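Hello forum,

I keep getting stuck at the same step: I have a sequence, I want structure tokens, and every attempt I make locally crashes halfway through. Rather than fight my setup again tonight, could one of you with a working pipeline run this one for me? It's a single chain of 170 residues.
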Amino acid sequence: RDQKLIEQTAGTATRGEGSEDIRIELSRPDARKTAIGGDAMFPVQHSLKLLDAARRGRSNFTADFFDGSEAGEKTYSVSAQIGKQMTAGFNRSLPKVGQADKLDGIPSWPVMLSYFDHGSESKDAVPVYEMGFVIFANGVSRRLVIDNGEYTMKGELAEFTLIDPTPCRR
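Reply #2:
Ran it on my machine without issues. Output:
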């Protein structure tokens, strides 16, 4: 806030074999150990599933999600709504930034993610917050809007540089 770090969570999360719990060892804000359900996805896993669903033409899916927020103690149930693939060249209608023109020929989809308290019993639950954006097939997103109910934030791509891929050592 105001260019100052307000809170920080640090630690490691380890997924066991099979459907075991995910073990979490936090070092910040204070040292402690905890666990969450083994079905929870980390952010990169969730993004990969989102892109896979979009490519397959699926319009929605729900998953448990853990990103270390809320002092590393929060798991959300995330409902993803995926719109139809955008027309080629959609990126040209967005503000010009760095090498963003290289996204012009890449497929993209509008997405709305609704984050619910994990384990919420009510089928009529209101999301804790929602996030809308356009995601490109390479994982880059633009036109970000986050709505937490009390206020809405708009994110704009300010800088974009593509890095040449390098072969994986594995």
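The radius of gyration is 18 Å. If your local run keeps crashing, start a new thread with the error log.
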